[in-house]
Design goal:
Blueprint: E1 3-12, H1 20-37, E2 44-50, E3 53-62, E4 68-76, H2 77-80, H3 89-98, E5 106-110, E6 113-122, H4 127-140, E7 161-168, E8 171-172, E9 176-177, E10 180-181, E11 185-187, E12 196-198, H5 205-211, H6 218-235, E13 239-240, H7 244-251, E14 258-263, H8 273-284, E15 287-290, E16 296-304, H9 311-336, E17 352-354, E18 358-359, H10 360-376, H11 382-391, H12 399-403, H13 410-418, H14 423-431, H15 446-465, H16 479-492, H17 499-508, H18 519-537, H19 542-549, H20 556-570, H21 575-591, H22 608-629, H23 633-640, H24 644-653, H25 661-679
Antiparallel strand pairs: 1-3, 1-7, 2-3, 4-6, 5-6, 7-8, 9-10, 11-12, 13-15, 14-16, 15-16, 17-18
Helix pairs in contact: 1-4, 6-7, 8-9, 10-11, 10-15, 10-17, 11-14, 13-14, 14-15, 15-16, 15-17, 15-18, 16-18, 16-20, 17-18, 19-20, 20-23, 21-25, 22-23, 22-24, 22-25
Length: 689
């Protein structure tokens, strides 16, 4: 079958740099999926992206679909012919729809009977026929939060479209995409090579743009920027701190990257490190440099989109831009220190958090009281929790956090120390915002952990009380992040406190007009759903999660111990047989409506196999009890795996549902005890082979 290469490019005004990678990956994935569905094979699909274009190149794409054999199923045989064997209206109608006589129809047999059928060969469509619609569909499905219109048309895309290139082999695929007629023309770097470039073959696309000062491959451009940054940092005897997200964003800002090192006055190093980094990174997209000891140096690295013959001018320009920002930071730092955090507590009353949930002051007081309830279980000093709770939101009232919101908590730590607060209080103010994002560090101290849990429980219960729980992709209050934060702190920091207890504490602190005890069930269900996702990311299979979730333990640390135990148990050679046995027991007990004694009558144990099971269960109950108290679930399940032989023998030699009532009830009681022994840890009947 004939094959050829293909290139597609949509040229736009500057695309959102933070979204560029995501948009290009989504475009490639959508096209790849559609090609597979259309059975169009190819050797390689390469996705490309710069600030002014989204593109892909496909190598050795087949020119057309293969001829397809299509089978149409008609009426059932009984409905197709009457008693005399003549075709009915159903058969005649089906034959007419297929364009053939009834005699030309065939039959197929399924497990539901015999049917009339017709097979026909259909020629495959060509790439020029299929690709334009595939591309339009892929573009329409891109994850664009808000599309824009341009000119007088009703067309919508992430940015206005200026050209479309679509070349298959050496020929343009004639079509119109987002208002632009496809051609074989593209454009190079906006300043270095702005003239139109004609692409004669798809495989010349990347090299032609490279000649026009455009590095079109996002990943290659990213790697080149990283290499240049690291080299530039070494030139000033330092190491660049390359944030992956910032690197992606900068890669989305330039087509022809050139790195320049700038300097700032060493006196600015007296500012907290985070202030300098935030000012450089968030506002200017600069990379900072540290020395061999990890200390910040008075240099920064910027990535320019042009190759200047006078790089010193660009360097000086960037230095002029950063200087007033750092001077502002110095001013904020000095002004903020004039007032202690404690003196800022009353000002929290002037900032509304949410109409029904009150001010930031109200929120900080709720956090304090919830944290006090949590802290009691960990013997934390009440005065310490009270002080940390009162101060935890006060840095939001500083000029520095007003200018750099991402420094909330961090500046609270600095200002607390400047105000004479203890190191424990200062650390807790910072730590109660942790984790700020997926994979972020967790609070190290118990005080910080209690405040962080209280902060998130107040948020979850408060927003649920307002009936504003997340829907779809909308989560304006960050409840998903808050829920995962609660889960991670409880599990990974082994904070032993029950979810329902924290929920009760949080509900008790809600304003009277929205206080609603029924919210508890909704928040708990939401947390458990996020917990399921948490374990899915840990590669814990669904059956293991379900086996443990049945226990309904509210202590996530305890639940995590059970999860680890079931993971280890499932790997044992006896696990499959024991899971099947427990499933059988579960089914027997579920189906019976009889009421039977809780205790086993040893006089009714007439079969050797049931006596052996009873004795083995009693021995295991005695051995396992102290392990359960110590949460030694892994060893307990390992010990219980030894029951496998006697359980198999029981089901082989003993009939449970016998006619004699007393004997039947006694055996049901025995099975109930066996089931309960395992249920003390997990429902292993839910485990899959």
């Amino acid at each position: 079958m004939d094959k050829a290469d293909l290139v597609f490019e949509i040229g736009t005004e500057e695309l959102p740099p933070k979204a560029l990678k995501k948009l290009s990956v989504a475009l490639g994935a959508s096209v790849e999926k559609q090609l597979q569905e259309a059975k169009l094979t190819y050797a390689k699909l390469r996705v490309l992206a710069t600030p002014r274009r989204l593109a892909f190149v496909i190598e050795q794409l087949v020119c057309a679909q293969a001829e397809q054999s299509i089978e149409r199923r008609g009426p059932a045989w009984q409905a197709a012919f009457d008693a005399e064997g003549k075709a009915t209206k159903a058969a005649l109608g089906f034959a007419k729809s297929c364009g053939v006589a009834v005699e030309r129809l065939g039959t197929i047999k399924t497990n539901k009977g015999k049917w009339l059928a017709y097979q026909l060969q259909q020629a495959g469509q060509t790439v020029p026929q299929l690709l334009p619609e595939m591309i339009k569909k892929a573009l329409s499905l891109l994850p664009i939060p808000k599309r824009m219109r341009w000119g007088a048309s009703n067309l919508e895309f992430v940015r206005p479209v200026h050209w479309v290139l679509l070349l298959f082999g050496g020929e343009v695929i004639a079509c119109e995409i987002l208002g632009q007629t496809a051609g074989k023309v593209t454009y190079g770097h906006r300043f270095h090579a702005p003239a139109a470039i004609t692409i004669d073959t798809p495989m010349a696309y990347v090299s032609s743009l490279a000649d026009a000062k455009v590095m079109v491959d996002f990943d290659q451009r990213r790697a080149a920027i990283k290499t240049q940054i690291e080299s530039a940092a070494r030139d000033v005897s330092g190491s660049a701190v390359v944030d992956p997200e910032l690197l992606d964003e900068v890669t989305g800002l330039v087509e022809y990257p050139n790195v320049i090192v700038g300097d700032f006055a060493p006196a600015f190093l007296d500012l907290p490190k985070e202030v300098l980094v935030s000012s450089m990174k968030k506002h200017q997209k600069y990379f900072h440099i540290v020395d061999a000891n990890g200390q910040l140096m008075a240099h920064f690295i910027t990535v320019s989109n042009i190759k200047s013959s006078q790089p010193e001018i660009i360097k000086q320009g960037n230095e002029r831009v950063i200087r007033p920002r750092l001077e502002d930071a110095v001013f904020f730092w000095n002004q903020d220190k004039k007032q202690s955090l404690a003196e800022r507590i009353p000002s929290l009353k002037s900032i509304l958090f949410q109409k029904s949930l009150g001010t930031l002051y109200d929120r900080s007081q709720r956090i304090k009281h919830i944290a006090l309830g949590i802290g009691q279980q960990h013997q934390l000093e009440a005065a310490l929790i009270t002080r940390a709770g009162d101060l935890c939101k006060t840095d939001l009232m500083t000029d520095m956090v007003g200018e750099f919101p991402e420094l909330q908590g961090i500046m609270g730590r600095y200002y607390a120390l400047e105000s004479g607060e203890t190191a424990a209080i200062a650390e807790a103010i910072d730590a109660h915002y942790l984790p700020r994002y997926s994979g972020d560090a967790l609070p190290a101290s118990r005080l910080g952990q209690c405040l962080a849990l209280a902060d998130r429980m107040d948020l979850l219960v408060g927003i649920f009380s307002l009936g504003q729980k997340p829907t779809g992709d909308k989560d304006p209050f960050g409840l998903r992040r808050a829920a995962i934060g609660v889960i991670r702190i409880l599990i990974e920091k082994k904070v032993s406190v029950a979810l329902d207890q924290m929920l009760d504490l949080a509900i008790s602190q809600m304003p009277d007009e929205i206080k609603d005890a029924s919210v508890k069930a909704g928040v708990l269900a939401y947390l458990l759903e996020r917990l399921r996702g948490y374990y899915a990311e840990q590669k814990i299979s669904v059956d293991i999660f379900d086996a443990v979730a049945v226990c309904q333990t509210q202590d996530l640390g305890d639940l995590n111990d059970r999860m680890a135990a079931v993971v280890a148990f499932k790997a044992l050679p006896e696990a499959s047989s024991l899971a099947a046995a427990n499933k059988r027991v579960s089914n027997i007990l579920r189906k019976t409506e009889e009421v039977f004694p809780a205790e086993v009558d040893t006089d009714q144990l007439i079969e050797p196999a049931e006596r052996a099971l009873y004795d083995a269960l009693k021995a295991q109950q005695t051995a396992v009890a102290p392990r359960l108290q110590k949460h030694e679930y892994t060893q307990a399940l390992s010990d219980m795996a030894q029951l496998n032989t006697v359980i198999d023998a029981f089901f082989k030699d003993v009939m449970v549902m016998v006619e004699e009532t007393a004997l039947r009830h006694n055996r049901l009681a025995l099975l109930q005890q066996m089931s309960q022994l395992f249920l003390n840890i997990a429902d292993v009947s839910k485990l899959q082979s």
